[in-house]
From TrEMBL:
Keyword Hydrolase listed: yes
Native source species: Segetibacter aerophilus
Pfam families registered for this protein in UniProt: DinB_2
Molecular function (Gene Ontology), one example: hydrolase activity
Name of this chain's protein: Putative metal-dependent hydrolase
Residues in DinB-like domain copies: 37-170
Alphabetical UniProt keywords: Hydrolase
SUPFAM superfamilies found in the cross-reference section: DinB/YfiT-like putative metalloenzymes
InterPro entries, A to Z: DinB-like, DinB/YfiT-like
């Protein structure tokens, strides 16, 4: 059995921005494009016990992860639209850990967030496929929590990483539990 315990919080490593390239762009867009299908396939046979299982001790449950991804990627979609239509807008941070404790996380079936991800990622993918290299490198948002400007290229990489990161949490749990 693989040893995921060594870095269970960051199974694919921490995010690092890479220099712009068409190949990387294509890969990152595909990470976002295929995430809803990948999540759906990974959890399609899960029962409530499995959905309520934390991916690590003290970590979020699979249900919380899926709802978190939907919450996070709704924010990402809005951030992209803001960056494309405003001059370096200040984005609104949110308390993701607190959002994960709200009633919808526990009372709404996980397939609702999977359905939301399918629709959201379809629209988001159309937008990012039509962003030029110049826009990726020059359109920005200001993140007040980090006190820094972030390019669309940085955001694309970060959310592609975020997609792979949480999918790896779920897949590693499946492997560790033998599901």
């Amino acid at each position: 059995m693989p040893d995921f315990a060594a870095d269970v919080r960051y199974p694919i490593g921490k995010f690092e921005t890479l220099p712009y390239s068409e190949e990387i762009k294509k890969n990152w867009i595909n990470d976002i494009r295929f995430l809803p299908n990948d999540i759906e396939l990974a959890i399609q046979t899960f029962d409530e016990y499995q959905l309520d299982t934390p991916y690590r001790e003290g970590g979020w449950t699979v249900k919380q992860l899926v709802h978190h991804i939907a919450d996070s990627h709704m924010n990402a979609y809005i951030r992209f639209k803001l960056a494309l239509t405003e001059d370096n807008p200040t984005i609104k941070p949110y308390e993701e850990a607190e959002w994960a404790k709200l009633p919808d996380t526990f009372n709404v079936p996980v397939n609702v967030s999977v359905t939301l991800l399918h629709a959201l990622h379809r629209r988001w993918t159309v937008i990012i496929e039509n962003i030029s290299e110049e826009q990726f490198q020059n359109r920005t948002v200001f993140h007040p929590e980090h006190q820094k400007q972030m390019t669309l290229w940085h955001l694309l990489g970060m959310y592609a990483w975020h997609s792979r990161h949480h999918l790896a949490h779920i897949k590693n749990l499946i492997t560790l539990k033998g599901w």
